[in-house]
Here is the input.
Amino acid sequence: MKLLSTSALPALALAASTLLVSACNATPAAPAAKAANATVDAVPARATLPVVKVHKDPNCGCCGGWAEHMQAAGFPVEVHDTSDMALVKQRLGIGEGMMSCHTSEIDGYVVEGHVPVSAIQKLLAERPKARGLVLPGMPIGSPGMESPDGYRQPFTVALLAEDGSLSEFSRHE
Here is the structure.
């Protein structure tokens, strides 16, 4: 597995924070557009799915779309609005260059950003020794960031290791 470089983290953090401020205030895609673009895998065979605890800023509009993506896959979702997302990210070990607009806790793992349910299902099935999954920024076409015209930006979800390093976990075209 290829480790992601940390030398570009300050520039990525600045770019991510700029995108987060503008995208979080954007109006989410209409429900019909979401339904047309959503790809949710079948619910895993496990009888009871773990609760998804979503920590988000109360003014963010796109986080609700991601929560709906998780609910559509059968996950129970709790939304926790907080005005101090930096404290949440610090507590859960999300460093600069890893950040997105919301941070979730799922069955002992942290999930940062608009990670697709398919990656979360893979994480829960494989149960690697890791802190969780990270999708920095807010890629267009990721769950909750759907584009009305159907445009999808390719992105890679990273596995956040216990030592804080990142490695590729899944690619989404």
Remarks:
- Residues 9-25+48-172 form one domain.
- The radius of gyration is 15 Å.
- The beta strands are 52-56, 77-81, 103-106, 109-112, 132-134, 155-160, 166-172.
